[in-house]
Amino acid sequence: MPNLYEKYLFVLLLTILLFSKSLYGANEAPIKYLGIAQGLSNNMATCVFRDHYGFMWIGTYNGLNRYDGVAVKIFEKDLKDPKSLVSNHITCITGDTHNKIWIGTNKGLAIYDYANGKILTATLNKGRASNKTNILKKVNAIVSDPKGDVYVGTSGGFLVVKKGTNNCEQIKIKTSTNFNVQALTIDKNGRIWLFVEYMGLGIYDRKSNEVRIINSQLKTLSTMTADPRNENLWLGEKAAYFSLILFHIS
């Protein structure tokens, strides 16, 4: 059964659609449908990302898709191939400045490298260079900065990947590394903001290499983005009802 948040969101989207139709009428742009019949791996799309080549990357509940405007190329988990996706359930996608596509799944993080057309699995540094493990947690959000560093929010903590590597470092909040990062965003000044479930809004301090919680009023969130004018954060609260919150940062 859908919860109140889902019902509200459905009504809101339906209202916007009907209003747009009545406002623009016959002048509205045509909609092109892309689904299984057109080559997509699954009809349940979870995320969309456009890379600098113009390709559209579409994550679904069952596979990753790259669309060039004509045809779809599907990437899936292959148990016989270690250089395939870690999971077919895609949760988020972004790109970096080093020609790589970062793919979050419900069971870890994968990287598509345009240089060789291969998919790599991101690993977690456990303290020593030789002590690395795969990330097994759900990836909720990924952002990259202009320098090429990548920041990953998971259900089991906050990770930083330095440019040119696929090895993640786990970042602490005080002494804890086990927390649920629900959303990430980067502002105009390059500051990394993250929302931690039941802890609140935090910011990544690069100097101390830690996360600082700066507001603990909110307990759960569905989405967050930085204002391009660098004045505010827009936060979508995930509760019994949907609310949009403005947080002043400048």
Query: Which class do the helix and strand fractions yield?
Result: mainly beta
How much is the radius of gyration in Å?
A: 19 Å
Euclidean distance between termini CA atoms:
41 Å
Q: Quaternary status of these chains?
A: single chain
| Individual helix count | 1
CATH architecture assignment name of the largest domain: 7 Propeller
CATH superfamily of the largest domain: YVTN repeat-like/Quinoprotein amine dehydrogenase
Largest sheet: 6 strands, mixed
How many runs of DSSP E, i.e. beta strands? 21
* Count of distinct structural domains: 2
Helix content: under 10%
CATH class of the largest domain: Mainly Beta
Kindly report the average pLDDT value: 87
Strand content: 35-45%
As laid out across the biggest beta sheet, the strand order is 10-9-14-13-12-11
The name CATH uses for the topology of the largest domain is Methylamine Dehydrogenase, Chain H
Give a summary of the structure in a few sentences.
By secondary structure, the protein is mainly β. It has one helix and 21 strands. A hairpin with a 3-residue loop joins strand 16 and strand 17.
Your description of this structure?
With 250 residues, the chain is mainly β. It folds into 2 domains: 44-171, 7 Propeller (Methylamine Dehydrogenase, Chain H); 178-250, Beta Barrel (Thrombin, subunit H). Helices cover 8% and strands 45% of the residues. It has 1 helix and 21 strands. It has one helix at 4-24, and strands at 45-50, 56-60, 63-67, 72-75, 90-95, 100-105, 108-113, 118-121, 123-125, 132-134, 139-144, 150-154, 157-161, 167-171, 181-186, 192-196, 200-205, 210-215, 221-226, 232-238, 242-248. The strands form 5 sheets. It has a 6-stranded mixed sheet with strand order 10-9-14-13-12-11, with no helix packed on it. It has a 4-stranded antiparallel sheet with strand order 1-2-3-4, with no helix packed on it. β15 (181-186) and β16 form a beta hairpin. The protein is globular and about 45 Å long. It starts with a helix and ends with a strand. The mean pLDDT is 87.
